[in-house]
Structure formats: C-alpha cells, structure tokens
Description:
By secondary structure, the chain is of the alpha/beta class. It is built from 10 helices and 21 strands.
Amino acid sequence: MVLDFFEEMSKGADILELKKNDIYTSEITDYTIEGSGVCKIDGVAVFVPGACVGDKAEIRILKTAKNYAYGKLEKLIEASKDRTESDCIISGKCGGCTFRHISYEAELQFKQKRVTDALVRIGGVDSEIIEDIIGCEEPDHYRNKAQLPITVDKDGKIRVGFFAPRSHRVIPLDSCALQSKAFELATEVFLEWANSEKISVYDEKTHSGILRHLYLRHAKKTDELMVCIVANADKLRHEKRLVSMLTERLGNLKTVVLNINQEKTNVITGKKCRNLFGDGYITDELCGLKFRISPLSFYQVNRDQAERLYGIAADFADLKQGENLIDMYCGTGTIGLSMADRVGSLIGVEIIPQAIEDAKKNAADNKISNAEFICSNAAQAAKQLKDRGVCPDCIVLDPPRKGCGKELIEIVSEMLPKRIVYVSCDPATLARDIKLFEEKGFTSKKAVPVDMFPRTCHVETVVLMSHSI
Ligand code: SAH
C-alpha cells in the first residue's frame, strides 16, 4: 500500500536526484496511511514522520529508494494551522502516538479521508453513502489496558516505561496521555513496593531477574481496577506487603494477579495466573451487559467508543424478533451478545478457543440462552453452517486486519443474508472485500468511520451491505 501511494505521488518524476543528507525546503501536502507527512521534492514523494499537512519546513533526506525517499523534519519554517504543541514529553520517542502534533479535528479529517479514499478508489463505493466520522468525546486517557515494561533507570531506580518504536529499549515514564488515569496511582504504589523491597528486574538478554511487566486494566463503567504483575517466577518476595499497600491506597482495587511468564519470549503474558487478592477478574458493562475481564481475556481498549461502534452495528443490523444472526470473528462474543435480545438465534464463530470459552461464560453471566458459539476458522464454519441449512437474516463480520478473504465471501454470499454488517479495522482490506461482495450482488448502503484509537493512525469503519435482488 505504502509503495503504491509513493509511486502514485511520484508519477512523472524524473530520475531521482535527491541525495542523503541534502536539505530542501518544501510544503507537506498529504499523509501516508501510517500518518507520516508527505511532500514532493523535485517531483519525488518524500515521507516525513511527525510532519503536518500545511507545514513549510526544511527537510533533510535520510534515505532514498527507487522513486521515493524518507526525510526528517529539520526545521519548521511556517507551522501548519493544524499543528498543536505536544503535551507528552516522550512523544516522537515512544511508539504509542502518531498524532500528538496535530489537532484532533485534523486527525479526524485524515481518518475520514483515509476511509473515503479506500472505499471509493478500491471499493468502488459511492462517496455519498459515507457518513461523518464518529470522533471520541475524550481523545485522551481512553485506554483501559496498559502493559508497561519494567526497567531500571540510570540511577538504579525501578521504573516502568514504554518501548521505543520497533525496539526493546524502555523509555521510563510514569504516566501516559492515552491511558486511564486510574493507572497512575497504581503504578506509583507498585513502584514504591518494588523499590523498597529491592525486587530484581527481568533482563531479557540474560533471562534473569523477576519483574517483567506491570499490567493494569480498568473497567470504566464500574470503576473496577485490576493490577497484574507479570513475573519470571511463580512467587514474589513480600507479595503480601504489595497487596496490603495496594488495597490500602486504591479504593477501587478489585483484584491483584500474578501472571507467571518464565519463558524466553517477547510475548508479554504467560499462560498461568495466580490470584494474590480478589477473584482474578474485574467486571465492566458494555451495551447494558456485564463482561468479565481477566488478564488473559480480550476486551475492547476504548470502552466508550466500542459501545458507539456496536450501537451503529446494531442500527445497521436492524434486527427483528425471531431473525437469525451470525457473529463471525466474534472474539469474546461482545457484538453478537449485545444484539441477542433482538434475535431468535445467535451463532458466534471465532478461531481462538480461550475467546470462545469467554464468550460462553459471557452469555451465561448475562443469562443469554439463544446463543451458540463455534470455535473454528470462519470459512470452515460458514461452510458447515450452510451445509446444516442455516439461513442467517444478518451476518456481522469483524475480521482482523487482513480482512475476510475470497473463500469466506463466496460462502457468505451463497447463504444470501438479507443484511451484512462489516466492521473493519483496515480500510484497504475492507474496500477490497466490498468489491468482492459487489461482484456477488451485494451493494454497500451506508458506511460510518469510527475513531476507536485517537492519536494513532488506526480507524474503524462499519459498512452495511444488502443484496440487490
Ligand atoms: N468481534 C470481536 C473481535 C474482533 S477482532 C470484538 O468486537 O471484540 C477479530 C477476531 O477474529 C479475533 O478475536 C481473532 O481471534 C478472530 N480471528 C482471526 N482469524 C480468524 C479466522 N480465520 N476465523 C475465525 N476467527 C478469526
């Protein structure tokens, strides 16, 4: 995608004359899909991270490729009207935020354009059906989950921090503008304990030391807090003191869990957990239902926007009593379960066994008895359901970034659902899949981009399709 974009941007450019370390004055005119600024120098597209459309700047060429180049913003000559002062001392150094240097309005415009460009150009969708992006009311502190690597700073103090982009170098920082404020005090108390008890910190090179990650989750609606320590051990020295310090200082603390990860791996959590306090899970509410959140279970990181997204999906699904719904790529079942009271039957399909277990538990916890969950590859399950004679009135598709793919689209099309609601986290694969559905006789009726992850370049889209006949 990026290459296509650059090639297109550089159309008509002569042989590339740009050289490494040369400095040029130019204006940023566009963004890549990853949110880097793009300018044209001698007709060649130059990709400049941290630059903003409308910036006039001196750009230093860092690397040249066949018909595009990478540059660095050397000096800002005239700042774009969309520029804002970053309020984070490590933005640009940590991989978390793409857009702390532009206003939230400009970020939403970028996301709207990204979705429109993909759907119109690749998907052949009429731009009229694309509605305005649903922005986040609070674009900061929306993340209800933090997995903070533990490190020792240059003064020998135990700290938590963030990984630098594409690296395992930890940049120490005690708070983050994306994460729930509920994590700040929990982090402070944990660090007080770790430093006073001089607990060792894990070193991935030597595979020695104990503390690996501080893992925090907060249920926004119920205000319940979970503290989980990921350790290279099945016991912590002075763990009772940790629990009493946390329970004393954190009124909303519901559970403290030790996650045991003794593997030499980049994967953050291990498979085993031991409860140090409480039941090992917190409970949140989403779309009027209760969901259990344990260290290993999946839950949307932006609860409020997830509720909006599911609300739009429910609107598009427009379910009537007695209809049949398939929730494909259902994860822990949240989308389908939020619509279960409106349907005769719900079938959820998901490939990860643990997620299916959680989906069944979520159905039982919410006294939902018309739901069936199948642990399988989506295409295989669709084929089995079709062979079983299942005729869904509506199918919700919420695939991972790579999209649904041809095989599933073929089977789903043959099932002839009245409505397909496609929830996507990647506009390009969504557009490709829409085109395939179009060839099978389905037309896109409505599309709404939703900003689930402010300050990053990611954007979700919900599309309603129905059969033309
Ligand atoms: N609908 C859920 C989760 C969506 S994320 C929610 O809103 O929370 C996409 C899900 O698709 C993940 O849970 C992933 O495990 C699952 N998945 C990925 N590939 C799959 C496949 N080939 N078949 C079925 N499920 C798959």
